[in-house]
Give the backbone structure.
Amino acid sequence: MSSPTPATGARSSRLALLVVGLCWLVVLFDGLDMFIYGSVLPHMLETKALGIDPGKAGDIGSYATFGMLIGALSSGTISDWAGRKKTIVVSTAVFSLASAVCAVAGSLGVFSLGRFLAGLGLGGLLPSAITLVSEYAPRGRGALIVGSLMTAHQAGGIVAGFVALWTGDWRVSFWICVIPLFVGVPLAVKYLPESLTFLQAKGRTEEARALADRYGVKAPDATLGEKRPAGTERWSAVAALFRGGLWVQTLFFWLASFGGLLLVYGVSQWLPSMMRAAGYDLGSSLGFVIVINLGGIVGMLIGGRLTDRFGGARIGAIWFGATAVGVYLLSAHMPLAVTYLVVFLTGLFLFSAQAMIYATVAARSDDDNRATAVGWTSGMGRFGAVFGPWLGGQLLATGSTTTGFTVFAAAGVFSLIFIGLTGLPSVKRPTDRDAAHPASATG
């Protein structure tokens, strides 16, 4: 393939910026909706809203993450079949409408249903957005682009903390989470382009050419759909994850994602309540939500750049190890300033460690099953996301906050082991692409 001209390269960069910008916005809303429950939970528990208690709160958190599991597992395959754009739009609409259900809920059952439905949309959005930005990322910048996208998730967590502090009312907070239906969805429908590699892999050559001409970029190889006929069948992309010895790598990615999402969702939901139970006041406990997500933003940018340079397996292992240390340190009652610093550093490693799993999976996947690979890695990890909030609720209900931090730290060690194993020569095939050389629709 000939090198792009400077003008074409500039237009490709502008197109990548458009895709990343729009996906960043909808992932921001995804993060807001995900973190809002944990942010309003201390107030709901204190006022016993809808009759909630720690055990029931853990169950509700697991309902949401179970919805995410279903959404993530189905979205990758649906996205490889119907398109990245449609999946992103529908997922955003679903979790926005689900927040309205939570806002008007008159019983804990209806509220739980709303969180489950929100989980379907939340789980469906992220794998498709990661896949789309990976395919439009400039060559050699895939992990950095994914990391930049994931800063939106942490920015949403920061917004959730401020919303909870500002409103002081859980119903108002959930009404605010309906805003994406009127902002993110219309913008994505009008301006977000479909994946060029998806269109080509589906044999929709004329659509791909028209889209490339509209934005002044080079279309992908016109024979892509012929080269990869397996991509035309919905479930063949899943089977491809296990062919040719790939099952070992796939299994290790899934196990690493399990531990990583157990850690992410367990800490995200229960950090304010656990810190409250550890003796910090409500304002400080919600402040920790803001600080841990600020650390997450910094970590995404640092981790993405290092992953592009050194590979996701190596950086991911270091990041999970540092996360385990940070979470364990939170079990000790420290001066408030020191605690804020530890929370910030923990967030720096916590969220970007999981993002690097996705970036590495996307980089090692083929064009016609990339969304499926990311979606199933995310989906299998959702079993950990289901277990984490439930486990946190059980531990908090027994007053075992110190044990809770220790258990979550152990999950970090678990993921460290399996993401590290994916980098072994016996697991990673010589033909596999590393995160430093991602596939790109524009390259």
Q: What stands out?
A: The CA atoms of residues 212 and 219 lie 5 Å apart. Confidence is low (pLDDT under 50) at residues 1-11, 224-232, 435-443. DSSP finds 17 helices and no strands in the chain. The radius of gyration is 21 Å.
